[in-house]
Amino acid sequence: MTALTLSTAGAATLRADALVVGVAKGAKGPVLAPGAEAVDKAYDGKLATVLDALGAAGAEGEVTKLPAPDGLKVPVVLAVGLGPAPKKDEAYDAEALRRAAGSAARALTGTKKAGFALPVESAEDAGAVAEGALLGAYAFTAYQGGEDKLAAKGKKNGNGAKLPLAEVALLGAKPRDKAYKAAAERAVALVEEINRARDLINTPPNDLYPESFAAVATAAGKEHGIKVQVLDEKALVKGGFGGLLGVGQGSTHGPRLVKLAYTHPKAEKTLALVGKGITYDSGGISLKPAGHNETMKCDMSGAAAVFAAVVAAARLGLRVNVTGWLALAENMPSGNATRPGDVLRMYSGKTVEVLNTDAEGRLVLGDALTRASEENPDAIVDVATLTGAMVLALGNRTFGIMANDDAFRTSIHEIAEEVGEPSWPMPLPADLRKGMDSPTADIANIGERMGGGLVAGLFLQEFVGEGIAWAHLDIAGPAFHEGAPYGYTPKGGTGSAVRTLVRLAERTADGDLG
Fold first, then answer.
1. With 60 as the cut, is the pLDDT of residue 407 above it?
2. H-state helical runs in 34-153
3. CA distance linking residue 151 with residue 406, whole number of Å
4. CA separation for the pair 322, 309 (Å, rounded)
5. Given 288, 345, 350, 491, which residue is catalytic?
């Protein structure tokens, strides 16, 4: 991953390949943000005028490259838009800093070292800039050819594509201050795990299947002191995990339930995180139509987020116990596949009539939620690319939050907004439960088409232990980005929900579960 340093140099003395400054959108044109003073001086106080003449307005994500004048030790100055300038005596929003740093890092692909002189008035600001720059510098290159002469020089990979920005030097961040150092260390650990989740999501399904995903989790557990338990097909049969087995029985790659347990000796609370891990979703016998299969390697994004969050909690040494449950299966059609009309007996003992094999995520989650509930955690949060209905409701950038406790739902929504992950609270209307009544089994796996995302949440609620606070995050929209990159968001896997889960763990460690 891109290296991060807290530089003791000033903007005028830093030796690098580029220097990033911020520019905001003012009432009468672009306005330079704090951190750009020395650079503006090198332009004889006319940097804003020059940017205005070039058509720069300071809009969010806008990038303008300029040749550096005499007086600077860099050849290039990059001005990145922060969006509307804050009101007098107000600071720049952390998410604005994150996105600007991400846009700048993406624009500096192929660069070895860049200084970031964005507004940093606190350790939190430094952490936001670091997060954005490191997230923006992400690239998935594992399948792009071998080494060549350009790769050896560190400029391009074997496919001829430029390599990501190699080093971020953060200016104005007080390298000797404990709070700033802690913010930088947190950013590195968090982003490394988000990028690990992104890598998993982007990995082709012929290489990432339940067994190989479980192996990755096992290796990470050994590295970071996390206890890992993997239930294979035999163990799932013995335990009666009918949901996982039913979804996975059509594939040559058998299902797995992976438990990752991070514990702290002084922890007073326990969080259980449950992730949907469908490593490839064909829809099963209820086959997806043409055009809907190509990105279905991303249907394990929930499990990737849970995995990354548990490892991040361990790396940060949070004073909370965090247990992750990865419900892993591959949903394929075959002579052995579950058929519409089949009845599965779940781990809870509840029977489910499968009316649509493409509503499979809720089946594997149901088993995992019941198993997680047996350990009586203080709260359970599941994360899943669960329904297209949620994308229709909230779009591609916002995830939905459902819960059996209004205060807990509100708390998670506030946390998600705080860390820069757009989300929205959604209800669980009791009247929609009747649509899942089955004449054959205890419940059907689908109900009314309208409000389908809420119906899925109601289904999951059936498998949560009594008295346990539970929330469901449907990340079907933001988990996988198919458009052009923006801010710190790349094309492909995004690592959605990792930051929310980690901040939830931090708050829980501080005694504020919500």
1. yes
2. 37-42, 47-53, 94-107, 123-136, 149-152
3. 52
4. 9
5. 288
State the first-to-last Cα distance of the chain, in angstroms, to the nearest integer. Answer: 34
Q: Are strands 76-84 and 63-67 parallel, antiparallel or unpaired?
A: antiparallel
C-alpha closest to that of 327 among 274, 383, 381, 402: 274
Contacts of 392 (CB under 8 A, 6+ apart): none
∠ Cα 260 265 269 (to 5°): 70
State the Cα–Cα distance between residues 462 and 406, nearest whole angstrom.
17
Distances (CA, A) of 387 to 370, 381, 399, 450: 21, 17, 11, 12
- Among 362, 409, 499, 507, which one carries the catalytic annotation? 362
Residue 149: the pLDDT is 46
Q: Which residue in the block uniquely carries the two structure tokens 């579960």?
A: 513
Indicate whether this model's pTM tops 0.90.
yes
**What are the structure tokens assigned to 397, written together?**
């950038």
From the list 201, 211, 388, the residue with the least C-alpha distance to 283 is 388
Per the listing, tokens 């991040």 go with 312
Nearest to 275 by CA among 252, 304, 313: 304
339 annotated active-site:
no
Kindly calculate the radius of gyration of the chain based on its CA atoms and give it in whole angstroms. Answer: 24
Give the CA distances from residue 418 to residues 88, 291, 430, in Å, rounded to whole numbers and listed in that order: 22, 35, 30
Is residue 155 scored above 60 in pLDDT?
A: no
Residue 123 to residue 416: CA distance in whole angstroms: 20
Long-range contacts formed by 334-343: CB under 8 A, 24+ apart: 334/250, 334/251, 336/249, 336/250, 337/249, 337/250, 337/284, 337/285, 338/246, 338/247, 338/249, 338/250, 338/284, 338/285, 339/285, 340/285, 340/286, 342/246, 343/440, 343/441
Distance CA 423, CA 438 (A): 32
**269 and 513 in contact (C-beta within 8 Å)?**
yes
Neighbours of 93 (CB within 10 A): 16
The CA distances from residue 112 to 45, 163, 485, in Å, are: 28, 9, 21
- Cα 84 to Cα 87: distance, rounded to the nearest angstrom: 9
pLDDT value at 513 more than 90: no
Cα 317 from chain centroid (whole Å): 20
**Cα-based distances in Å from 76 to 4, 8, 31, 255:** 20, 20, 19, 52
